[in-house]
């Protein structure tokens, strides 16, 4: 499938919801894309292609879990769930960051997964301001891993996330 075909597929399986979860936010819901067999396969393949070279996939809570696991299977790597604050038992490593709406915390286990020297691709559904992916990259860095790239299905280009993440390489399958 060409990059144009994938972009068209994403655009046609996206639900737009105004004023969610806060007034003024135009929420992009990719649930219909993930529920579509051809859509899920196409975005998984394209994200895996972008992620080549990584030896671990980090999926961001919560929609990044779906994609992260699928991409990891395609790449032949494991997957690390980067959780929202308060979900994991201690000890955890955590990072607090600014969201398009409010603040949030990301956490990963402080032990049990060897991260030192790992080359990690971070996967999420939507790139908005970039705060989430930047926090995940910092978190991995604190644990001795390197975020080599980030890959998302949809980029909200006007919010400047790509620039905020530089020099991290970012792939998006559709930028609007
Ligand atoms: P940000 O940190 O601003 O790049 O926000 C990215 C994270 O928040 C991703 O995990 C997205 O799922 C979610 N997100 C932020 N803004 C939106 C939006 N307008 N529509 C859907 N998800 C969003």
TrEMBL record:
One of its GO terms (cellular component) is cytoplasm. It comes from the Bacteria. Pathway: Purine metabolism; AMP biosynthesis via salvage pathway; AMP from adenine: step 1/1. The keyword Glycosyltransferase applies. Keywords: Cytoplasm, Glycosyltransferase, Purine salvage, Transferase. Its EC number is 2.4.2.7. GO terms for molecular function: adenine binding; adenine phosphoribosyltransferase activity; AMP binding. CDD domains: PRTases_typeI (cd06223). It is found in: Cytoplasm. Pfam families: Pribosyltran (PF00156). InterPro entries: Ade_phspho_trans, PRTase-like, PRTase_dom, UPRTase/APRTase. The keyword Kinase does not apply. Its main location: cytoplasm. GO terms for biological process: adenine salvage; AMP salvage; purine ribonucleoside salvage. SUPFAM superfamilies: PRTase-like. It catalyses: AMP + diphosphate = 5-phospho-alpha-D-ribose 1-diphosphate + adenine. Catalyzes a salvage reaction resulting in the formation of AMP, that is energically less costly than de novo synthesis. NCBIfam families: PRK02304.1-3, PRK02304.1-5. Belongs to the purine/pyrimidine phosphoribosyltransferase family. This is Adenine phosphoribosyltransferase. The lineage of its organism: Bacteria, Bacillati, Actinomycetota, Actinomycetes, Mycobacteriales. The gene is apt.
């Amino acid at each position: 499938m060409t990059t144009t075909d994938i972009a068209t597929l994403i655009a046609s399986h996206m639900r737009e919801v105004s004023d969610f979860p806060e007034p003024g936010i135009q929420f992009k819901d990719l649930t219909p894309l993930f529920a579509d067999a051809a859509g899920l396969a196409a975005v998984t393949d394209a994200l895996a292609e972008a992620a080549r070279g990584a030896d671990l996939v980090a999926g961001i809570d919560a929609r990044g879990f779906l994609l992260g696991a699928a991409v990891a299977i395609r790449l032949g790597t494991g997957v690390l769930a980067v959780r929202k604050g308060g979900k994991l038992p201690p000890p955890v490593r955590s990072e607090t960051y600014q969201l398009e709406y409010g603040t949030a915390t990301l956490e990963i286990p402080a032990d049990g997964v060897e991260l030192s020297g790992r080359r990690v691709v971070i996967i999420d559904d939507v790139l908005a301001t970039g705060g989430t992916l930047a926090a995940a990259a910092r978190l991995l860095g604190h644990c001795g891993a390197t975020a080599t790239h980030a890959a998302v299905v949809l980029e909200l280009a006007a919010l400047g996330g790509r620039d905020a993440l530089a020099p991290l390489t970012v792939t998006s399958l559709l930028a609007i």
